[in-house]
């Protein structure tokens, strides 16, 4: 309803209607297929030629819909807007009722199964006029979406959190079993202890936690972003021991091999700088630079 020239792309995922969770109406279809038909129905009711496509993405929910053109001329926009209003009101007033069950879904039935039976009109206080663009309380997404995956946090702040968490793990009953068995050398490298995310959070400053809460995933996302230093498994935080990492696969696609080679020694090794025992790998085996002179 934003404009006649509007086009859209939608990748349906969670099963929601306009006012809450989508209620199933046809047991002969899978829940996913029934919901896809509903999303397509919304497009048809809004006067779009709806095209269906399947994306090449690693997800079970990969069927998308595209609306690039209208089924009616611009002069009929007011009429279609009335139809849209009726459709919205019908979804509001007969959620869980039998209107959709009786009429079903038909790609060629552009009115979308509107409830026209007696008693199906919405209450007066909920009636929308054709001039109302959005539903009451609807708030569209901001034009510029804020990045909230910890990637835009100040580097100094991230470095401080990483150092605090690493020191916490190193000082929490350090393990003595990480010996370099390949060389027969019994010199140990302190991998520290593992702690739950809750235990880590309890030791962090309140101001740090407050800042992380505004980010999606919070502390866990920040630690996972710092893959060089940490690994987070089953809700527990560990310091990464690069001696245990699997060597690069020879069957890895050429593009990934090239990117990996291009990134080699382009960043400083955190362990070489901050870990009390230095890096667990010799310089030639570590993918990170042991000192600025090694940086590429």
TrEMBL record:
It is an enzyme of class 2 (transferase). Its main location: cytoplasm. A zinc finger (C3H1-type) spans 263-293. Its EC number is 2.1.1.211. GO terms for biological process: tRNA methylation. It catalyses: uridine(44) in tRNA(Ser) + S-adenosyl-L-methionine = 2'-O-methyluridine(44) in tRNA(Ser) + S-adenosyl-L-homocysteine + H(+). InterPro entries: tRNA_uracil_MeTrfase, Znf_CCCH. It comes from the Eukaryota. Keywords: Cytoplasm, Metal-binding, Methyltransferase, S-adenosyl-L-methionine, Transferase, tRNA processing, Zinc, Zinc-finger. One of its GO terms (cellular component) is cytoplasm. It is found in: Cytoplasm. The keyword Zinc applies. Adenosyl-L-methionine (AdoMet)-dependent tRNA (uracil-O(2)-)-methyltransferase. Belongs to the TRM44 family. This is tRNA (uracil-O(2)-)-methyltransferase.
């Amino acid at each position: 309803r934003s404009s006649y020239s509007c086009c859209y792309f939608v990748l349906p995922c969670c099963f929601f209607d306009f006012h809450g969770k989508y209620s199933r109406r046809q047991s002969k279809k899978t829940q996913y297929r029934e919901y896809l038909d509903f999303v397509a129905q919304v497009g048809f009711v809004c006067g779009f030629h709806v095209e269906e496509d399947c994306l090449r993405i690693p997800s079970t929910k990969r069927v998308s819909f595209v609306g690039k053109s209208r089924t009616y001329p611009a002069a009929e926009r007011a009429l279609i807007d009335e139809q849209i209003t009726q459709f919205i009101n019908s979804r509001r007033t007969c959620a869980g009722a039998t209107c959709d069950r009786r009429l079903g879904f038909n790609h060629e039935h552009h009115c979308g199964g509107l409830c026209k039976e007696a008693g199906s009109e919405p209450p007066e206080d909920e009636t929308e006029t054709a001039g109302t663009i959005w539903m009451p309380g609807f708030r569209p997404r901001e034009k510029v979406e804020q990045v909230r995956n910890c990637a835009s946090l100040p580097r100094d702040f991230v470095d401080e959190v990483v150092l605090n968490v690493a020191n916490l793990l190193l000082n929490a009953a350090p393990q003595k079993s990480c010996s370099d068995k390949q060389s027969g050398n019994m010199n140990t490298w302190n991998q520290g202890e593992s702690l739950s995310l809750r235990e880590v959070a309890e030791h962090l400053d309140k101001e740090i936690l407050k800042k992380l809460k505004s980010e999606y995933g919070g502390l866990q996302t920040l630690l996972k972003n710092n893959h060089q230093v940490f690994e987070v498994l089953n809700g527990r935080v560990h310091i990464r021991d690069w001696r245990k990492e699997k060597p690069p696969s020879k069957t890895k696609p050429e593009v990934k091999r090239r990117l990996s080679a291009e990134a080699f020694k382009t960043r400083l090794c955190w362990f070489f700088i901050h870990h009390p025992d230095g890096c667990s790998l010799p310089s030639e085996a570590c993918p990170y630079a042991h000192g600025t002179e090694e940086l590429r």
